[in-house]
Amino acid sequence: MRISPVDGYDASHIRLRVSKPEPYNGDERELTGERLRRLRMARGLTLRTVAIRLGLSTGSTVHYWETGENHPRFDYIDSLARMYGCSIAYLVTGRESGR
Fold first, then answer.
1. Number of structural domains found in the chain
2. Which residues, other chains included, contact 29 with Cβ-Cβ below 8 Å and sequence gap of 6+?
């Protein structure tokens, strides 16, 4: 892939590196996807069940959120928070607002 210069700056030497999130190692920095999975499993819900409740055709979208390959839109975050009985702040950050 060739990147053309913009305003005289040649960015062809820049390489993008995409890395997967590191696995949860037991500290408070639990990733959002891991939190989504833990909350779903704690309620005994399958990927398919969550997908159906959100109006999605398959559970693969939910799987992508849980693995960090993709992120849910805000309207899905709101629905997930209600489904899992937690706040949006907790779902996204792992902390309740104001803490």
1. 1
2. 94
The one-letter code for the residue type at 72 is: P
Give the CATH number, domain containing residue 46.
1.10.260.40
Token representation of residue 63: 């799987």
- DSSP-derived secondary structure letter, 6: B
**26-68 residue pLDDT tens:** 444 568 899 999 999 999 999 999 999 999 999 999 999 999 8
Residues 25 and 70 sit within 8 Å (Cβ to Cβ): no
Residue 1 structure tokens: 């892939």
User: Residue 64 belongs to what domain range?
Assistant: 1-99
Residue type, 41: M
